[in-house]
Amino acid sequence: MRAVAHRIAANGLTHFVRDASPGNGGDETAPAAILLHGFPDSSAVWNDLTPLLTDASFRVIAPDLRGFGETDIPKSLGDYDIRTGAAIDVIAILDHLKIGRAHLVGHDFGAPVAWMLAAQNPARFMTLAALSVGHTRAFLKAGAEQKRRSFYILVHQLRGLCEWLYRRRDWAMLRNIWESNREIEETIRLLSRPGRLTAGLNWYRANISFRRMVFPPAEGEFGEEIVRIPTIGVWSSREKYLVEAQMVNSARYVDAPWRYERIENAGHWLQLDAPDRLAALLLSHWGKTIKG
Q: How far apart are CA 223 and CA 77, in angstroms?
C-alpha cells in the first residue's frame, strides 16, 4: 500500500485527504472508493479498514470533513449545511484528484452526506455503502425509540453549554458516550484545538434540530432523495444510537439493487470493531458491481 497525504484547495477550504493506493509503487488507475467519517472522528477512523481494501486492489480516498481533523474550519454556521458544504467538498476533491467515478462509503454523519451525494450525483458514484445511519427519511420516521436514542443531538444544539459539558472532567462525557471508540485519545487531542469542538457540533446545529426531528421537512425539500445506484446498508448489533429499523427501512428510498447486512457483536464504530467483516461486505458489494 502506498499512502499519500494531500492538502487540497476546494470549495473555499483547504482539505486534508488521505490517499492510499494498492501496490508498493501505487496504482492511481485502480477503482477508487471515498470514505466519509462522522462526529467526533477524522479520516484516521478508517486506518484499520484501508489496507484491507487496498490489498484487494482498490484506491482509498479518506478526507477529513470540513471542520474536522486537519481540514479548515468554515467561518459561519451555515457553512456546515451538508447540501452546500460537505457534499460539494466531496465532488471538488474527486475533481482535484481526477477521479471520475468512485464507490461511496459514509459512516455516522458521513452517511447522510453519502445518501445525498448518491441521490443527487449518481453519475459520479458506482455504489453506495451506508454504515450505521440509514436514509435521512427512514431515520426521521423511525419512531419514539430512535428519538430517545437521539437525545444527545438535542444537547448538541446548546451552544457554549454543550462545549463546556464535553470538556469538563477531562472530557468525561465524550469518554462515556463514545466509550467504544478505540481512537478516543487521538480524537480528544484533535477536538481540544481552538474551534474544533464547536466545528464538529456545528454539523448537528446546521442540519438537524428538535423541530426537524418532530416535524420532518416535506419530501423533496432537499432535492432528489431517491438513490438509483446499488446500495448496501450495514448496521451493527451493539449499536447504541440508532435503531435497526432506520437502516432496514432505507430500502424504500433506493430504486436500485439494495442489500441489508447486520454485523453481530460490533458497536457503532464497526470499522474499528469489525474491520475484516466490514471489508468483506464492501468488497462483495463492489465486486458484484464491477463484474456486472
A: 21
